[in-house]
Amino acid sequence: MKISAKDEYACLAVLELALHYDPDVPIRVQDIAERQRIPVKFLFQIMQALKRVDIVRSKRGTDGGYVLARPPADITVGDVLESISGPFVQLSSNRNGGNAHQLEPIWNDVGSAIGAVLHDVSFASLVQQARARERQVMYHI
Fold first, then answer.
1. CA 50, CA 44: separation in Å to the nearest integer?
2. What does the pLDDT look like over 129-138, one tens digit per residue?
3. Taking the C-alpha atoms of 118, 120, 122 and 126 in order, what is their torsion angle to the nearest 10 degrees?
4. For residue 8, which of 84, 70, 120, 116 has the smallest C-alpha distance?
5. CB-CB contact of 67 with 13 (8 Å)
6. Cβ proximity of 69 and 54 under 8 Å
7. pLDDT digit string (tens) for 33-90?
8. Which stretches of the chain are DSSP H helices?
9. Which of 14, 93, 109, 123 could form a disulfide with 72 if both were Cys (CB 3.0 to 4.6 A apart)?
10. CB–CB of 23/66 below 8 Å?
11. Is the dihedral of CA 12, 129, 53, 57 positive or negative?
């Protein structure tokens, strides 16, 4: 499994929406891009892909932007990665004739193991971790 820039940006965008989660207050793409250092044009494409699979919703107009379609606890890193890149283990189309089936159970197990880990990490838990790190960094004089 390889995590592409698109995968990472999608996770960062969803994390940004989770950090500021309010289903009634959309966040502009430009604000997400600035806070997470994501190229705006690329982020627009990512948000459209996430919208198609019902991870985010959009609102048009001057107060428009994006919100999570579900609470952060109901969206996992696995959900986002699968929506952007498909299955965790993708077998090549060049399958070496009839011998490829011998290894297929291993690749299926690898895909299941990766999926189990990634579907176990919700964006609510990532928000908790981010907030805990922020508290540790505070200095008091």
1. 10
2. 988 887 776 5
3. -80
4. 84
5. no
6. yes
7. 999 999 999 999 999 999 999 999 999 888 889 999 999 999 999 999 999 998 888 7
8. 5-19, 29-36, 40-52, 77-85, 104-118, 123-137
9. 123
10. no
11. negative
Of 36, 38, 24, 78, the C-alpha closest to 55 is 78
Unique residue bearing structure tokens 């193991």:
113
Q: Within a 10 A sphere around the Cβ of 92, how many other Cβ atoms?
A: 7
The label of the residue with tokens 């993708």 reads 90
Structural domains in the chain plus CATH codes: 5-88+99-137 (1.10.10.10)
Helix axis angle, 5-19 to 40-52, nearest 10°:
80
